[in-house]
Amino acid sequence: MHTSKRWIASAALLGGVGALLAASPAAAGRAGPAVDWKPCPTYSDAALRALAPPDRLEQYKALLGRMQCGTVTVPLDYRNPRGRQITVALTRLPATDKAHRLGSLALNPGGPGGSGYLMPPRVMIINDADAQLNEHYDLIGFDPRGVGYSTKVNCAPPTGAPEPPPPGALSKETAQQLYVTEAAFNQTCGGSDPAFLSQLTTANVARDLDVMRAALGERKLNFLGVSWGTWLGVVYRTLFPHSVDRMLLDSVAIPRFTIPAFEDGRAAAAERNAGRFVAWVAERDATYHLGFTAEQVRATIIAMREDFDAHPRQFTDVPRTLDGSLIALAAAQEHPGWDVAATVLAELRTATGPAAPPTVKEVLGDDGAGPGEPPPADLPEQANRTMNQAAFCNEDTARLGFEADWAAYQRRLADNPLTGRVNGFSAGCAGWPLPAQPVRIAPGGGQLVLVGHRWETPSPYEWTWQTHAMVGGQVYTVEDDIHGSVLPVPECAADAVLFFNTGRIDAGCPGLGDPPPRALSATAGAALQGWSTQVM
User: Fold this and answer.
1) N vs C: which end of the chain shows fewer Cβ within 10 Å?
2) CA atoms of 235 and 255, how far apart (whole Å)
3) How many Å apart are CA 476 and CA 32, to the nearest integer?
4) Tens digits of per-residue pLDDT, 421-431?
5) C-alpha span between 139 and 119 (Å, rounded)
């Protein structure tokens, strides 16, 4: 969502009116749903290079060559099944072992608003373990309503936005200006097409998913979702308990959503993981010189954060002023970025300018290349911000006034002195003109695996157990802090494949291992690729 960083991240959100169940076309006196199969889109070489890494490009092209594409027609409003109809775009990668085919496995990457249309070939090229999913399953990708090739609308970008806040701690006056601007945009966006935007809910996406299941001729559907896709999964299982076979949900979403609860959970998780970071740095004081004990490192980082907020730094070769948010961001890095983050902190602690220290420049500096080339014109939409915003705001019952919002922000800063400054202030869904549509989840049918990552921030581990208490299933614990790392880690991916093939799975996996060595390798640099935008 473009008015707040957290809305751009993969998020865990509520969806829809729980009392409503999807009206089946047959029940409405119509023929059952059918997929309108059609030729798949073709992509330029530039788009293909943006979609797949060089070493997997030929494999990706071959997968696209055997992918099938189509649409299903669904009601915009399931309470009025004979009213306006929209289309949902889907893809299918047929199982390679047709003699032992087990069914269809639908995939969702998260969001809300993330495109899953090309997720089947993307999953296949992650590693050899993931590729095995396609042996016994048709892999099903789809763009949820409001996204990509499906029917959508886009709110106009905000106009007249205020200047970015000045460096340093945010003042109440500036926060109020931001609040008023964001609330006004929410009001305008939500009122631009209320008939459509009010129907962008997780529950309606779940209903669309069940129409797809029927159109594909499946009695039951298998499902793999990540981040917000986990919320879609449990909502689908709640609404259609008899339609689920096997379901694996990675990085489980918050089960009872309001934006304050969502932000509180993430802020506390970031601070908790930062405790591991300071202990790791303390064990390497000979390298970083930030303190011999975790308490010393913690005190050093907090003092740096306070000093950078009071006296922001400007280096001649870094195109932005650095304040306490950068220090907090370093402390909030995931495990693969710890070495680079600790090096940045060590360099900044003693930096005198006028040029930036070497690692700071590598992470944040201007390489002279300018803004870069625009994406290829035929590159499919990866995420839709309007869907993201609508799904959040249609399902947020809080919508705080400014004073309550400001008080919550101040409390998070106080409760999380290492990392609280990472999270900017936002109006949330204040001003959104459409009514909230929360849904309560409940136990459903089939086999369910809930994957929690013990130390991660975007989907804190406790959300997995909270969801488990409400819907049941088996908890699978990954011992890392990386959001949605089951498919990228071969050991974990092999367990996921075993589950879908046999219904059995272990209790967990190690996840991603130790961070890379000090060299600012492509891996280490990628771990911090968001620094430039997050510091702004």
Assistant:
1) C
2) 10
3) 37
4) 999 999 999 99
5) 9
Q: How far is CA 107 from the centre of its chain?
A: 14
- The first and second tokens of residue 473, run together, are 């299933």
| Residue 164 vs residue 252, higher pLDDT | 252
Q: Of how many residues is the chain composed? A: 536
Omega prior to 354 cis, within 30 of 0:
yes
Residue 442 is encoded by which pair of tokens? 């409940």
Instruction: Calculate mean pLDDT across residues 391-402.
Output: 96
Q: How many helices (H) and strands (E) does the chain have?
A: 22, 10
For residues 348 and 468, give the distance between their C-alpha atoms in angstroms, rounded to a whole number.
Answer: 43
Query: Residue 139: which residues within 8 A CB-CB, separation 6 or more?
Result: 92, 93, 105, 107, 119, 120, 123, 124, 133
pLDDT digits (tens, 9 = 90+) for 37-48: 999 999 999 999
If one counts every other C-beta atom within 10 angstroms of the C-beta of residue 123, the result is 24
474: left (phi over 0), alpha (psi -120 to 50) or beta: beta
Give 345's contacts (C-beta < 8 A, 6+ positions apart). Answer: 281, 288, 290, 300, 301, 304, 327, 330, 331
pLDDT in tens, 140-166: 999 999 999 999 999 998 776 667 889
DSSP state of 88: E
Burial of 465 (0-12, 13-18, 19+ CB in 10 A): middle
Return mean pLDDT, the chain: 90
Question: Which spans in 12-157 are helix H?
Answer: 45-51, 57-66, 119-124, 128-131, 133-136
